[in-house]
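User: two proteins, same treatment. go.

Assistant:
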Amino acid sequence: MTSKTHLTEPQGKLENWLDAEREALEQAGLRRHLRTVMSAPTGTINLDGRDVVLLGSNNYLGLSTHPKVIAAAVEATQIFGTGASGSRLISGNNELYTTLETNLAKVKGTEAALVFSSGYAANTSIIPVLVGEGDLILSDALNHASIIDGCRLSRATKKVYRHCDMEHLTVLLSESTTFRRRLIVTDGVFSMDGDIAPLPDICDLAAEHDAMVLVDDAHGFGVLGGNGSGTVAHFGLERTDIVQMGTFSKAVGALGGYIAGSHALIELLINRARGFIFTTGLPPATLAAANAALDVMRSAPELRQRLFSHAKCLKIALIDLGYTLLPSETQILPVVLGNPQRATSVAEVLLAEGVFAPAIRPPAVPPDTSRLRLTVMATHTEAEIQRAIDGFAAVFPEAHYPQNV
């Protein structure tokens, strides 16, 4: 009898706590649930059994369904099997890694590159290698969660500068001369706002104050720059001391993260980056797909042109309809709605109109800035873009969208 009581009481406490947490999320408009995608991520997808226009994918260039990319993945699976079956330092360092990292370094204009299992793993690995106790991180207020977690893991002191505010960053640098090393870290393209970091100004300040620079180029890679090489190329920066992080899970249409930089940096990461050392290598199909996608990305500038043409068309139409958008410079178009309940409500009404535009709420964005984060793709058709515009037109009066948010 005593044993049964001992077993059931903690379980009851756990269930009560879980129910209370779930209810708190519901009341705050922050409860999330998973939807089931039942088709490839093209311009229209089957979501929970229904065909809808997709405005919530990071597959910006549509490369995840490109015939050359799919063929490369299939061939690699037939040759090497489905999994790496070991960490890269033991038995999982497939020869496809060498090809991909060599190709990637050429695209990024760096001496070398190192591939990780994800962008999150890359950020949480690189930051603790670059800085630790006695060092300082200067981080943009709107940096991605993986950067924030990497900062925490490093145990370095962290100071947050106001979003893209170079005057504030200058003050923080001037006040922090006693630290051993200083690292400025910023997104290249901010994932929830769509704006681009003032990288030339950041690099100038870093040079003036003897600080390092790390750029998270997850949403700029494949999209910005002459051949899609990212934010550094977008600004024409030729500095070799910028540490570039990015992913293959956005415009490249595959999976994995990377760090691009000097040979010395990559050598140090191989020996000290915990997210590299203690994880299984990526599947061969993923490596081959990413490498094929890099080739398509470089040889097909029309994909980027089409992407930005769609973004411009949708942005102008939404503003004309009366929606409030943040001043995005990229393929990411944030429609600000304010509170979480309004964002989820408008998203559901849009879904009923056949448009999937996911609601983004805290903690992904600051309080009172919940939004629909719209992303276009090069593979959208003009008809799909128009269908999305028609959906927003139909929703505007029904959702009682406020004129001044």
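Protein 2:
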Amino acid sequence: MTNYEYDRLIYREGYKYICGVDEAGRGPLAGPVFAAAVILNPSDEIHGLNDSKKLSEQKREALFEIITEKAVAYSVASASVEEIDEINILNATMLAMKRAVDGLKIKPELALIDGNREPENLDVPSQLIIKGDTLSACIGAASILAKVSRDRLMREMDKEYPCYQFSKHKGYGTALHISLLREYGCSPIHRRSFLTKII
């Protein structure tokens, strides 16, 4: 079964609009956590949709342009470093997901959410799907939009804080990033709650 076939099975239950929801950036030591919500046209397939982590950066960037052009509706949102430190990364991720769904110009009748946790106070019914970014086309599309949007921001942050080389590691806890953290200390976009055992 392809990921579009998975979505079409759900559409056959009588829904008009279904959105996929996924996040990017739960693990890094720096930068916001992003989420995206995407409503696709199940009759107008975009080839190559998959979990963003399984795609090259070049492929993700190309698909980003196609998704944003062909989607029925899409929304990208985030939760800030300050919010992550205040309410923890799990709750900040759920907040970003809710913001993404709320930002859609068309209200879906169902949200397919990657993972095993549902955002609180979501205004639409939801269905949790483990490994949803590989099973569902609309979740795969959301995965790509969230990942590319976050990576683009981290490349911008590299210009603002060049000593941390954010464009290389996107804020993840690589050996390079940790060594630079120990050399230069925290920047304003580091998640201080993540760094208690590092610096």
